[in-house]
Amino acid sequence: MEGNAALSPCGDRAAIQDISRAHELMSQLQAVLLQLPAGSWSQLGQDMAKQILQLTTSALSTLQFCGCGASDDGGNSKCSGELNKSSEGRDGHRGRKTRRKNRTLTKVTTTVPYVDGYQWRKYGQKTINNAMFPRCYYKCSYREGQGCPAKKTVQQQGSYADPPSFMVEYSMKHTCKTTETIFPLVMVESSPHKASLHGGDSIGSSDLQDLHLSPLSSAVTHSESHDKCSSSNEQEQACQHEGFSLMPVNTLDELDMGLMDMFMGNFDGCF
DNA sequence: GTTATTTGACCGGG
DNA sequence: CCCGGTCAAATAAC
């Protein structure tokens, strides 16, 4: 994930996919580690997984913002960090705020939309027209304290895929400092726009549920159209997965037991 | 008691 | 006028 300075935008795509895959696997591995009995090695493993996640996320962000990855968002994926001034000046009524097309949007398809190292607070949920599941709106928990403008929306896609996939849209960058303080190493090499993920201050802790981890755990895409499905009954379920924060365990069984063995094997070597 | 989530209303853009 | 993003009162959870 470095030395890509000279890569062509198209060449980066493959890199993005690889990194995305690695990130996803690491997310799952992290979930496995969380289920292990507490212990110094378990903790170490979690710390390592955390750092790897952060690095892959950072690398992906860099690639994306360079305009190669998931630049979709209607066409303004450049970099800016600008947004509507959100005329909050007004008052008297609610539901104000103007949303504009000129937001910086990063779309990501992931199976673990709630794990990205940041803490989010849900502030709304909306049934979207031709979508099977409602869209949930989150803003950074540090919005009040630090004025962090970061936001994201999460929407489950398709039907009941085994590991359900979610379209996560990030808008605005985090300005909150909390995480950086704890994991200063993360941002090391990110270029102009890395910043999407500094550390996760509490990832290793027990609050995993409140963190929505890892935007990039799956695939960075430029999908712009949601499915055409038009049911609506199961909508409520869509955002209920909040409850089980991490990810469906079955996916672990399927593809990552081997990886886990490998990982644990390495630790054995250390013992 | 405080804090987070849910939910329907409100609003602006298209 | 419809749709999606946001607010904030009500409710739930801690």
From TrEMBL:
Record's protein name: WRKY domain-containing protein
Q: Where is the WRKY domain?
A: 116-179
Gene3D superfamilies tied to this protein: WRKY domain
Q: Name one GO molecular function term.
A: sequence-specific DNA binding
In its UniProt entry, the species of origin is given as Ensete ventricosum (Abyssinian banana)
Give the Pfam families listed for this entry: WRKY (PF03106)
Q: Which UniProt keywords apply?
A: DNA-binding, Nucleus, Transcription, Transcription regulation
Q: Which PROSITE patterns match?
A: WRKY
Q: Is Transcription tagged as a keyword?
A: yes
